[in-house]
Specification:
The protein is an alpha+beta fold. The chain is built from 15 helices and 20 strands. It is rod-shaped.
Length: 553
């Protein structure tokens, strides 16, 4: 719009024509004497302003609403036809506060004051305006101008208000935001539905977890966790993070979590579970990778055996308060293929607490991740409490709020230190067997004596002795030395376990009426609440059976 053609002088125009540059370009001569009063010397000379007819000839052709006001009260000098058609006719000379109420309503008057004082254009974006017959939004641009004298007013500084209709853009943006919000809500709902609705609570561990999606401007990711009881008192825990965000990441997470539970039932070592997951991740999406940490707690050994696929380290807090980072061995993320993962083992006895998390807890855009890991280590050192309270404290200590830009998953497990009567409910006993015909009678006598000392009911004691006898007999027939019988009780179950040096796992078979052998595992499977077998890391196998104690849930 060539305003100078019509004699509307924008502040600084003559200076630019005169060769001014830098900070002086576009500047307005300051009024002498302070305030908003205009120095007579600074008033435009003849030919430097514009008269009413020129304004009408120029701005009457503009399709967008335009208004021109003058003086400190912003009195109406002119509104074009587009403005009058939209907001109604306006009487010249009336102050904007009353005559241009629609501008006052959107807060434009203070902006017009600033434009008059500074001589610098200002813009007010996407303001809703009432009285147009529909929900309308405009972006208002206020530009300083200098107006010629009229019979009713001297030459004065004024403001040209240009209103650009952005209703379509605002509505489109709002629809886009609603669509993104709906997609995010769907992703969060999917994510939460794929996470455990209720964590399993093992006999020998206390576990808690928390998941917090990213803030409103961040799509949900593929973080997940799980707790899986393996039998014989052992527990698997897993935490992972699918790279990427949105429904796709959440869906891949759900497939990996389901696969982990299936592989865990095979009771494989942690590194073998990760090997299987790696192949599955490639089959699901060869372009998608995920980090994962899988660990198994064995209360009999007081250890945590783990394998990591590019995931953050485990933080283990000792009973006295010291914290260890357990990061080695570790391998590449799932989905990269061609790598061999390995397992590691660390002590994890009574009074210890382990913290597993995803990178959203410690990673920040403006800091190195090591700083976040150091902060987490300090927070874990001072977080000696129940797992759920620890989860909450870690979120606060690491500054995780509803506006955090990444989703966060935390899994905490602690091995409680038991004393007094509670300690009496958790006991264990073991007998080494050398084989031979005396092994089975020795096993039966040992089991009967131990279970009697634990004051089990007679029926449960008989079932425990029968299971011990059948498992030992099976090991004598199909296994080899060294052989060991182990009995263990918790507050909820009795566990009978036999280990030997042979890696061949038994299978339950349907024995025929004429068969004289092959009934041992079938008998155990019939009388026990659960039974299973697994290979041992050092070689050999373990076969176990579990019985629920009376009154346990």
């Amino acid at each position: 719009m060539n305003l100078t053609r019509w004699g509307i002088r924008l502040p600084g125009a003559q200076r630019r024509h005169g060769g001014a540059s830098g900070a002086d370009a576009g500047a307005v001569p300051a009024a002498r004497g302070g305030g908003d009063r205009q120095d007579p010397a600074a008033r435009p000379r003849s030919g430097q302003g514009v008269d009413a007819s020129a304004i009408h000839e120029l701005l009457g052709q503009v399709q967008a609403p335009v208004a021109v006001v003058r003086g400190p009260d912003h009195r109406v000098a002119y509104v074009n036809d587009a403005y009058a058609a939209l907001f109604g006719h306006r009487t010249p000379g009336a102050p904007a506060r009353t005559a241009l109420a629609e501008l006052a309503e959107v807060g434009l008057l203070p902006l017009m004051d600033q434009v008059q004082r500074s001589g610098t254009p200002r813009t007010l974006k996407s303001r809703g305006v009432h009285g147009t017959g529909r929900d309308s939004y405009f972006t208002f641009t206020c530009t300083p101008v200098e107006l010629t004298a009229t019979p009713d007013a001297p030459a004065q500084r004024g403001v040209l208000v240009f209103a650009a209709d952005v209703t379509d853009q605002v509505v489109s943006a709002e629809r886009l935001r609603e669509s993104e919000s709906q997609q995010r809500a769907a992703a969060v709902t999917l994510q939460r539905s794929l996470l455990p609705q209720r964590l399993e609570q093992p006999d020998d561990l206390r576990v808690a977890a928390t998941y917090q999606p990213g803030g409103t401007d961040a799509a949900v990711g593929g973080d997940w966790y799980d707790v899986i009881t393996l039998g014989a008192g052992r527990t698997a825990v897993v935490i992972g993070d699918v790279m990427g965000r949105g429904v796709r990441a959440a869906a891949i997470m759900g497939q990996l979590r389901t696969a982990v539970r299936a592989y865990a039932r095979l009771d494989l070592p942690p590194h073998e579970v990760l090997q299987l997951l790696d192949g599955l991740a490639i089959d699901i999406d060869s372009t998608q990778i995920a980090t994962c940490l899988y660990a198994v707690h064995d209360p009999n050994e007081g250890t945590l055996t783990y394998a990591s696929a590019g995931h953050l380290p485990i933080f283990i807090r000792e009973p006295e308060g010291g914290v260890r980072r357990v990061s080695e061995p570790t391998g590449p993320p799932l989905g990269t293929g061609g790598w061999v993962h390995t397992s590691g083992t660390v002590p994890f006895g009574q009074g210890a607490t382990a913290v597993l998390c995803t990178d959203g807890l410690v990673e920040r855009r403006d800091a190195d991740i090591d700083e976040g890991l150091d902060a987490l280590e300090r927070a874990v050192a001072g977080a000696g409490d129940t797992p759920q309270i620890i989860c909450d404290r870690l979120l606060r200590a690491l500054g995780i709020t509803d506006e955090h830009d990444d989703d966060v998953a935390i899994l905490v497990l602690s091995c409680p230190a038991r004393e007094g009567e509670e300690a009496d409910l958790f006991r264990g006993a073991a007998l080494d067997l050398l084989g031979g015909i005396e092994a089975a009678p020795r096993a039966r006598a040992f089991a009967d004596g131990v279970l009697a000392s634990w004051r089990f009911p007679e029926e449960l004691r008989e079932l425990g002795v029968l299971a011990a006898s059948e498992l030992v007999a099976n090991s004598l027939k199909h296994g080899r030395a060294p052989m060991r019988l182990r009995l263990r009780r918790t507050d909820r179950r009795l566990i009978v376990e036999v280990t030997d040096g042979d890696e061949h796992l038994p299978r339950r078979q349907q024995a025929q009426p004429a068969d004289e052998a092959g009934r041992g595992i079938a008998v155990v499977a019939t009388i026990a609440a659960e039974w299973g077998a697994r290979r041992l890391p050092e070689g050999g196998k373990a076969v176990w059976a579990e019985f629920a104690l009376p009154g346990s849930s």
